[in-house]
Amino acid sequence: MNLLKSSRSRSPVSAALLCAVGVVAGCNVVAPPQDDATRYYILSDSAPAAAQGGQSQGGARVGLKAVRLEGYLRRREMVVRTAANEVDFKDYRRWAEPLDAAIGRIVQSRLLASPAVSQVWVEPFPVDQDRDYDVSIEITRCEGAVSPSGNYVASLSASIEVSTSGPNGHVVARRSFSAPDEAWNGTDFDRLAALLSGDAAALGRDVLAGIPAKN
Questions:
Q1: Using CA atoms, how far apart are residues 127 and 173, in angstroms rounded to an integer?
Q2: What is 45-209's CATH number?
Q3: For residue 169, what pLDDT is reported?
């Protein structure tokens, strides 16, 4: 009787040990790594490299202030506006560089491509270089959007201010810029980045149009 009782008393302990072994074995099963679904995009500059490097003599000397973005654009996620007051942040579709820096780079190259401009400095400006004009740009939209007709488009708009440089500087031009809507299928974000790149180049040309010719 004692042997039978002893065997029965060990049975729950053995079951517990078997369960513990099973748990440990289960912990050693590691799920296979998953690919990162995030994709990164840039704004590309199509200005000819030779034109970007050239500096004409006698053209305007321009100071390009840091581009300002609307608050909701100050993030790496790409934005799609789905309604007048609703936006969708795409967690897995991101800008590879700050959007303000990318737009500023393209605008600068467009200014340098013009014979009407001899030099472009970006903030912080060198203290030993005189400038004829300073340019301020505020980006109000730079995103994908759903048009009133229900189609997806690329959308970029901005406000531009050109002023004379120096302690007595004054505003010489204020301009509103809106790129024409161009069709986008709502899923090809590389295409959206390409369309917004073209819009940024058009913005640069509009900035140039607001800079008075140097006499």
A1: 25
A2: 3.40.50.10610
A3: 87
pLDDT exceeding 70 applies to what percent of the chain? 80
Distance from the first to the final alpha carbon of the chain: 117
Q: DSSP characters for the chain? A: -HHHHHHHHHHHHHHHHHHHHHHHHHHT-PPPPPPP--EEE-----S-HHHHH---TT-EEEEEPPPEE-GGGSSSEEEEEEETTEEEEEEEEEESS-HHHHHHHHHHHHHHTSTTEEEEEESSPPTT---SEEEEEEEEEEEEEE-TTS-EEEEEEEEEEEEE-STT--EEEEEEEEPPPEE--SS-HHHHHHHHHHHHHHHHHHHHHTSPPP-
Domain boundaries, the chain: 45-209
Q: Which pTM was predicted?
A: 0.81
Query: Tens digit of pLDDT for each residue in 123-182?
Result: 999 988 899 999 999 999 999 999 888 899 999 999 999 999 988 889 999 999 999 999
Identify any residues that bridge with 83 across adjacent strands, giving them in sequence order. 86
